[in-house]
Amino acid sequence: MFDVKRRAMRVLFVLDPLEQLQLETDTSLLLAEEFRRRGHETWFATEAVFRVDHAGVFVRAWELHVAESGAPHAGLEITAPVKDFTLVLMRQDPPVDAHYRFVAQALGFVAAEVAVVNDPASVLQWNEKLLPLRFPAYCPPTIASHDPEELLHFVRQEGTAVVKPLSDCSGRGIRIVDVASAPSAIEAVLAAYPGEPVIVQRYLPEVARGDKRIFLANGQFVGAVNRVPSGPGRLANIHQGARVESTTLSEREREIVAVVGEFLQRQRLWLAGLDVIGGFLTEVNITSPSALRQINAVTGEHLETMVVDILEGLARDLSHRSRQLTV
Ligand SMILES: Nc1ncnc2c1ncn2[C@@H]1O[C@H](COP(=O)(O)OP(=O)(O)O)[C@@H](O)[C@H]1O
Ligand SMILES: [Mg+2]
User: Coil, strand or helix: which one is 30?
Assistant: First the structure.
């Protein structure tokens, strides 16, 4: 609940286990520090500690502290109804698996009263690597299928292509293929991610100049950074050693931001990271979009303040609306 008198919020972060977080690059902790600086309470939970029963949705949560060094540590432990929190930030990294879906489904029960970011229904509905296909004018030719023959047919048309698992991140499982190497690469992804289709996308050679990350909050532009692969054949993910450099948006990229931003706002996908290569939208990150620290590093700004302003606004609006409904 939003404590009107104290104007303080209880913010719950759903995170991967703390020891898995990469402190130099982690966006969740940067946001947590900003919430604490403003006097809000910060708590965290992992995917495994949610419970739904007749009485509601409950979570085992720990106070989230961030030391001077940037290292997170757990404080007091409580088990509480999720409705006791003002804002819940789902920030687990992919894969979007059964654990992830259960948390989203559980939070769906309370999303009318608690601000849940991103909206649980929308993170269940949309996949971050398929979402660009919602915007065909900006998405490079792409196919998702379980059928190796269909996927190979696409590669034969393209010559060179990128093979991606549907539900992973940070460049994991991604391979650049030609007609000769495609069959084994496709088989490898089908085997490594059982039950999931494989995505094959046109290879964009402009990736040598970088994969731009554009961070949006409530559909609005927050900041951007260009990620340049560390060598030929290397991926442009920060976790794959890409270097970051400052950037500006082209006219086409501004158009992508306007069109996709409007969609994200409508879908209540409050925090998102667009990946753009050579002016083409290749991914819309909606699970735990990051790179805020890198954007700060190249712009000299503290963009977590803008993001937290927007999140505070969302939580206040929802709190006003749900109070009006219950009066
Ligand atoms: N269409 C493409 N053309 C060239 N390289 C690509 C393409 N799509 C992805 N890549 C490479 O793979 C990396 C990760 O791709 P992405 O689709 O953003 O998945 P994720 O970041 O979730 O692993 C990119 O930074 C880039 O190096
Ligand atoms: Mg990406």
Answer: helix
Alpha helix (H) residue ranges in 20-116:
27-37, 98-108
- If one residue of 170, 207, 286 were mutated to test the ligand 1 pocket, choosing by the most ligand atoms within 8 A of its CB, it would be 207
Tell me, in angstroms, the distance from the centre of ligand 2 to residue 214's CA.
Answer: 11
When pLDDT is cut at 50, 70 and 90, the band that residue 14 belongs to is very high
Pick the CATH number of 141-203 from 3.30.1490.20, 3.20.20.70, 3.60.130.10, 1.10.287.3610: 3.30.1490.20
Would the CB of 93 count as within 6 Å of ligand 1?
no
Domain map (residue ranges) of the chain:
10-125+305-326, 141-203, 206-285
235 lines ligand 1 (CB under 6 A): yes
Q: Is the CB of 115 under 6 A from ligand 1?
A: no
Query: Ligand 1 centre and the CA of 45: distance in Å?
Result: 30
Q: Is the pLDDT of residue 276 over 90?
A: yes
pLDDT of residue 320: 74
- pLDDT over 90 (residue 318): no
- By the CB criterion, residues less than 5 angstroms from ion ligand 2 are 275, 283
Q: By C-alpha distance, which of 236, 243, 167 is closest to 203?
A: 236
DSSP assignment letter at 166: S
Amino acid at 268: R
The whole-number average pLDDT for the span 48-75 is 96
The rounded distance, in Å, linking the Cα atoms of 22 and 251 is: 34
Q: Which ligand is nearest to the CA of 169?
A: 1
pLDDT of 223 higher than 60: yes
Q: Is 170 near ligand 1, meaning CB less than 6 Å away?
A: yes
Q: Is the pLDDT of residue 4 over 50?
A: no
Q: What's the CATH class of domain 10-125+305-326?
A: alpha beta
Do 10-125+305-326 and 141-203 agree at the fold level? no
The answer, yes or no, to whether any atom of ligand 1 lies below 6 A from the CB of 280, is no
The string of pLDDT tens digits covering residues 227-257 is: 999 988 899 998 889 999 999 999 999 999 9
CA distances from 11 to 28, 115, 232 (A): 12, 10, 42
Which top CATH class is 206-285?
A: alpha beta
